[in-house]
Amino acid sequence: MDTIQKEKNIALIKDVLRNYLLEKGFRNTPERYTILEEIYNMDHHFNVDDLYLLMMQKKYHVSKATIYNTIEIFLDAGLIRKHQFGEKTLTSSSYEKSYFDKQHDHLVIYKKDSDKEIEEIIEFCDPRIQGIKEAIEDAFGVKIDSHSLYFYGIKND
């Protein structure tokens, strides 16, 4: 993505956040926008520890509590998505930006001979999954808004 488009996207998500905060009656703090911008500059999944370390490295003085509270706001606003990949970390949830992303699924690859230490997370989209979703909708008379599908494994030698 080019720099101009990235700047437009960040301006748009900041507007989404501003409107959300106004609608919910939450404080409109600069820290929330800084955290949001850092998340949307990332190209990978992250956890609270990752985000906290990044903020500290960039000399932003925010507490972990502020990050946790801000993450909850972003989740409710639809700006990020939460995942439970089964990793063994201090903070067991992973997150990813979600405002511009299309529905996708995940292949979680663990390091060999580790206790669920993640080597890699591959995002993929398979049209056959859409067919399964539609079959479920037909069979149960429902409209599925979203789904999450995770495959877990280790690489073959």
What does this structure look like?
This protein has a 3-stranded mixed beta sheet with strand order 4-3-5, with no helix packed on it. It has a two-stranded antiparallel sheet with strand order 1-2. Helix content is about 45%, strand content about 15%. A hairpin with a 7-residue loop joins β3 and β4 (about 120-125). The protein is globular and about 45 Å long. α1 (about 5-25) runs antiparallel to α2. It has about 160 residues and is of the alpha+beta class. It holds the Pfam family FUR. Homodimer. Belongs to the Fur family. Keywords: Cytoplasm, DNA-binding, Metal-binding, Repressor, Transcription, Transcription regulation, Zinc.
DSSP helix count?
5
Strand percentage = 15-25%
Mean pLDDT: 87
Low-confidence stretches: none
For the biggest β-sheet, the strand order reads 4-3-5
Structural class: alpha+beta
Spatial extent as radius of gyration: 18 Å
Question: In terms of topology, how is this protein built?
Answer:
Layout: H1 3-24, H2 30-41, H3 48-57, H4 64-77, E1 80-83, E2 94-97, E3 105-110, E4 118-124, H5 127-140, E5 150-153
Parallel strand pairs: 3-5
Antiparallel strand pairs: 1-2, 3-4
Helix pairs in contact: 1-2, 2-4, 3-4
